[in-house]
Design goal:
By secondary structure, this protein is mainly alpha-helical. It contains 10 helices and no strands. The chain starts with 12 loop residues before the first helix and ends in an 11-residue tail after the last helix. About 45% of the residues are buried.
């Protein structure tokens, strides 16, 4: 069945919901399986995580393998899994798998490169999720908010606020940022995602990304990389990535 299209020729919300989030599910399953393997056999984590000096030893695969494991135990995996599901499904249903993959890899690679500079030991796929979030940021600022799900639009600012709070090591900052975002979420739930609200959300997320960059937190470069890749691909193709048949 072909996705339903609206007057402007872009995928409608109904068509978006029919698109199977297959890529999100596959990445979630693979990441969870490898991460759990790392919890059980610590050698898996040791072999895949970021580690000082590994790039000098030509272990280039460690630019991406840290995305497959988590060094913070079950809470770390659970938090990133929730973010991947919410943001990943929003991106895949709105813009397709090609853009999803480009955003995930752009955020992951930018975050890992920053990690080797600022935090040379660690692991987790939150930077790749930030690449997806950056794509939604670009969509909001470029006037593509009609294709962004309400839950995705509301979740990303909270996600960025939590990252800023963690990077600044301040619970007060986190609570304050969430309090600032809360009215926007209420307005979206009540009135839908209008253009002014989309600009407010996108601008808040961009400010959060720049704050993370200034704090030398690896999620800042990841968010900005996703936003740049998303903006470039959306400008070339306003409908997003190549059409994907409904699941």
């Amino acid at each position: 069945m072909n996705p339903t299209r609206n007057r402007e020729g872009v995928l409608s919300r109904e068509g978006d919901r029919r698109r199977s989030p297959l890529l999100t599910v596959c990445v979630l399953v693979a990441t969870s399986a490898v991460s759990i393997g790392g919890f059980v056999y610590h050698g898996v984590l040791d072999a895949l995580e970021r580690e000082p000096g590994v790039l000098a030893r030509d272990e280039w695969w460690r630019l991406l393998t840290p995305l497959l494991v988590h060094d913070g135990g079950w809470p770390h995996l659970a938090a990133n899994a929730v973010a991947l599901v919410v943001v990943g499904v929003s991106v895949e249903r709105a813009f397709g798998r090609r853009l999803w993959l480009a955003l995930y890899l752009a955020g992951g690679l930018a975050g890992e490169l920053a990690g080797y500079a600022w935090q040379p030991r660690g692991a987790g796929n939150s930077v790749a999720v930030c690449g997806l979030a950056g794509g939604l940021l670009a969509a909001l600022l470029l006037g593509r908010e009609a294709k962004v799900s309400a839950i995705g639009a509301v979740f990303v600012p909270y996600w960025v606020a939590a990252l800023v709070a963690y990077a600044s090591d301040s619970l007060v900052v986190g609570v304050g940022l969430c309090a600032l975002v809360a009215p926007l979420g209420f307005l979206i739930a009540r009135n839908g995602l209008s253009r002014p609200l989309a600009v407010c959300l996108g601008s808040a997320e961009l400010l959060g990304a720049l704050t993370l960059l200034a704090l030398h937190d690896i999620h800042g470069p990841a968010l900005l990389a996703g936003a740049l890749v998303g903006a470039g691909m959306l400008r070339r193709n306003p409908d997003g990535a190549a059409p994907v048949s409904a699941g």
